[in-house]
Amino acid sequence: MTDDFILEMRGITKDFPGVRALDNVDFKVRRGEIHCLVGENGSGKSTMMKILSGFYPYGEYEGTIIFDGKEQRFRNIHDSESVGIVTIYQELALIPELTVYENIFLGHEIKRGRFIDWNETIKKAKDMLLHLKPDLDPSRKVKDLGVGHQQIVEIAKALSKNVKLLILDEPTSSLNEDDSENLLRIIRELKKKGITSILISHKLKEVVEVADTITVLRDGKMVGRLEKREEFTEANIVKYMVGR
Ligand code: ADP
Ligand code: MG
Q: Start and end of every ABC transporter domain (predicted)?
């Protein structure tokens, strides 16, 4: 692996009333890798990713974010998306009443102020979904899909925005075995296309299976960074998570 880091977060500290959620955390992600972020409940994983996505804007945390070689001071989620950082949330952000292809394309087609050629749009959505989940019909309403399929739509939406870094915060926690496997397959496919992923998961079996690098948080501190395959065992990760 090269030392080409797409992301460096340095000295990140974040306080909430009465709790230091993150304490001087350094976090580095290589371009094109699958980077797993693990830690017990409340260790600061989601807060870290919310800082990266601009949900907590510049000024509401201490530290520095370097993405794609530039210091970033995101004011909101739109700012981070505009440089290619897209988050798939635990709580899904789709519009249930609209179809799959409308959800994938509507937002930014309208933003660009373009006339929408729906035939072309459906065809594009079909092409995209073909790689992700061939049996998913783009003309179905999102509210009629299961969680697993809704996540696929979120990923298709992210891909249509030219994502460089995909953040997945516990995406498989509400998925069955098949949908989880499919999601991990997709993350690996994206890696082949050069897309970097940060995956938060408490399922250590899948972490061990899919990770190139693992960062462990405990009580808001970075306590471990595992880079060698032979270190990737569930027992070893747990050791870092609980601090023995
Ligand atoms: P994780 O995702 O690893 O479970 P979080 O980042 O959600 O952890 O939370 C880290 C710590 O910050 C926890 O102690 C949690 O209670 C606290 N926390 C998170 N979000 C908020 C918030 N909006 N207000 C107050 N405390 C919060
Ligand atoms: Mg969380």
A: 7-244
